[in-house]
Amino acid sequence: MERSRPPVRHELKFVMNYGEYLHLSRTLDYCLERDPGGDQYNEYAIRSLYFDTVFDDFLNEKLSGVENRQKYRIRIYRYSDKDIKLECKSKFGDLISKRSLLIPRDLADQLIACDPTGLEKTSAPLLHDMYREMRTRLLRPVVIVDYIREAYIYGPEDVRITFDKEIRTGMNNFDMFNPRIPTLPVMDENLVVLEVKFQRVLPDFIKNLLTGISAQRMAVSKYVLCRRFEEKDF
Question: How far is it, in rounded angstroms, from Cα 4 to Cα 198?
Fold first, then answer.
């Protein structure tokens, strides 16, 4: 069910080498809880199909450093159509909020086909927004983003720390429910994206764990990384 007022969270991003990732991963595995959605290795595959306007407004806002911006995507896990999420992620500097709505496969296929028919009649605000963007700004799918996620949580302060590995782009293929579409890596295999998300305060013991790494904090965007393979002047 879609939440009418999604919580605002802090989001910090870093790029780290594989050696540092291994060290921090083992430490977090000792100190925090594993994501209940992970497998025996605490990993799961994520695939997102991102949407943008006909003029690539969302991409250009990110590249221009616009602080207040948003992006739409359809997200699945383990390449399955069991749980399909339509999401709108809004960013305000270091703060983010995310609206999410579970949708059926036929509606996902309709959105991927750029068909907004009937969305204006739904009671879901997020679908109303998709309808508006598709009608007025020609919102359409632009790129598939694949990666493997490893996640740890600290429940008392709603902290979530994730490692995103093996980030790949589907380029111009939008067949997101096909696990065998060709994809290309977008980063050096020795690099891992670390994301730290929390609502109010990052506990001191987690701050201390992160202080010990030399990872560079960056406004890295998996969406932008995956669109760099298009013939665009980034």
Answer: 20
Q: Is the pTM of this model over 0.70?
A: yes
Residues 6+ apart with CB under 8 A from 144: 47, 48, 49, 50, 169, 170, 171, 173, 174, 176, 181, 183, 226
Distance of alpha carbon 142 from the chain centroid: 15
Structure tokens of 97?
């909020």
Q: Hey, is 133 helix, strand or coil?
A: helix
- Beta strands (DSSP E) in 93-171 are 95-103, 140-154, 159-169
Torsional class of 162: left (φ above 0), alpha (ψ -120 to 50), beta (otherwise): beta
Element (H, E) at 229: none
Instruction: Give the whole-angstrom CA distance, residue 230 versus residue 171.
Output: 7
Q: How many CB atoms lie within 10 A of CB 132?
A: 14
Residue-wise pLDDT for 57-79, tens only, equals 999 999 998 988 999 999 999 99
CA–CA separation, 188 vs 167, rounded Å? 9
Q: Determine the 3-state secondary structure of 154 from DSSP.
A: strand
Q: What residues have CB less than 8 Å from 110, skipping those under 6 apart?
A: 117
CA 116 to chain centre: 23
Digit-coded pLDDT (tens) for 173-187: 999 999 999 999 999
